[in-house]
Amino acid sequence: MAYPASTIGTRPYKEVALREAAGFKRYFARLASILEAPLPLREGKENELEPRRIALALDAKAEWIRFHDHVETMCGEGRELAGVRGLAAKGAEHALRLAGVLALVDDLQAGTVLLRHLQAGIVLVEHYLGEALRLFEAAEDDPDLRLAERVLGWLRSKVSDGSSSNPVSLRHLYQYGPNAIRDKASALKVLSILAEHGWVRSVEGNAWEVRP
């Protein structure tokens, strides 16, 4: 997630013919070519995809290993990324996925993720890790967010050990959850915060599901 500072009040109207801008034209021409490309279907099938494998260049792999080990170190107790280690622990995986997407945007027939693709993926992941860390640190002084974090931990633990199903009913949460939540209103407030941040979602029957 990202939550940049608001620019409201500093956005005067600018007379710009955006559709005539060279960058705009290149961007949408590339998107159109990607969307119009035939899908890689399994032989003899009409609705079953068979994506091809994309290799990782040797220098890109070396850079990926360096980034993986760096993030792993920063996730240690007391280190810079410890507060967002749930996201950071998968940072190297996310960088690789993004690099694969960027390689195909570059060339739909690409068979290799190059170093420049991997480096761009790392830049994106570092941005989102920085945003997550900034938001986490801002939330440390917010009692509602601290309570939401406790509830999320409780929900995850109960689902993982099998003592509660996923989804979890609202009643189950305020009857058996953390002591700070003992009524419907407070439970809904915390669940709304978690939903806003993408950790849970509402499902049918007045229940909430912990998102993977």
Helix-strand sequence: HEHHHEHHEHHEE
> Which class do the helix and strand fractions yield?
mainly alpha
Return residue spans where pLDDT drops below 50 for at least 5 consecutive residues: none
N- to C-terminal distance: 16 Å
Could you tell me the number of beta strands? 5
Q: Main beta sheet: strand number and arrangement?
A: 3 strands, antiparallel
Relative strand content: 5-15%
Strand order of the largest sheet: 3-5-4
Number of domains: 2
Individual helix count: 8
Helix content: 40-55%
Mean pLDDT: 88
* Quaternary structure state of the chains depicted: single chain
Radius of gyration: 22 Å
What is the global morphology? globular
Your description of this structure?
The chain has 212 residues and is mainly α. The protein has two domains: 55-139, no CATH class; 143-210, Orthogonal Bundle (Arc Repressor Mutant, subunit A). Helices cover 54% and strands 7% of the residues. It contains eight helices and five strands. The chain has helices at residues 22-36, 58-74, 85-88, 91-106, 115-139, 143-160, 170-176, 184-196, and strands spanning 55-56, 112-113, 168-169, 200-203, 207-210. The strands form two sheets. A three-stranded antiparallel sheet has the order 3-5-4. Strand 4 (200-203) and strand 5 form a beta hairpin. The protein starts with 21 loop residues before the first helix and ends with a strand.
